[in-house]
Design brief:
It is built from 7 helices and 14 strands. By secondary structure, it is an alpha+beta fold. The protein has 2 domains: about 1-155, Membrane-bound Lytic Murein Transglycosylase D, Chain A, CATH 3.10.350.10; about 170-275, Barwin-like endoglucanases (Beta Barrel), CATH 2.40.40. The longest helix is centred in the N-terminal third of the chain and has 20 residues, at about 1-20.
Amino acid sequence: MIRVFSLILILFGFTIIAYSQNYSPESDIVLVQFDAQNKPYIQHQVSKGQTIFSLRSRYGLSESEFLAYNSQIKDKQLHLDHWIRIPVGHLIQYSTDTKANENFKSVYYKIQAKENLYSISKNRTEWDPNTIVQQNKLKSNTLNLDQILKIGYLIFFDSRISAPVKTETPSINKDTNSVLTNSSKSESNQKLKLFTNETRGVAITSGSNNGRNYALHNKAKKGSWIEVYNPVLERSVLAKVIGKIPGNYGKEIQVVVSASVAENVGAIGNKFFVYLRF
């Protein structure tokens, strides 16, 4: 009986080690670590066919963001089975109404030495101590070293971006690095002066393809302009806000855009990561 119990403990230990070292998109478990600035990241093992561009596309990262976490990469080349870091702070949501499904993975964190419920609440999640207790069904406020806690949810989906190709450089506003579409530079500069808010999240295309740049957004004023920026290709476009996002869209959706907007920023899937200014 003792030998069987010991075997169970050993297998459980191996499971936790696997979670701490690897993240598989097929898994419902994401175990994050934090850098010196308390920014979360995951460890990812490079698989066959993966490139810096494909990973940046999947996680909505600019090249500079990706390389800042992986200074060991030489000549911008990935090697099979090597471990890399991927920052995921922009992908974590903390709404307690969120449930793990095909668009959200539960995010977990392993308790380190001298950490407690209150330091976790302050430095590792946006949940207050009571919410942490409720979400993890804790029986007390005492935490143990190496204990695994759920601290949020990670947005996950297959974000597909068209690979960059060499073309003639489009007209670019140097101050915003924006591709100016369907408006003159002077007109666009007037619109850009109105931007006071910045967010980052998931865009989805409505499928409407009338050649015009339209967007639905819950906070931007109807009739105003919103800048949709793709950090992977470093392209942006202005879209006119024509209303709010209908309730039938998922909670992860920050903006709904016309097919023309998606095409202009290089997205070929119906969902993709964007920066927004409005």
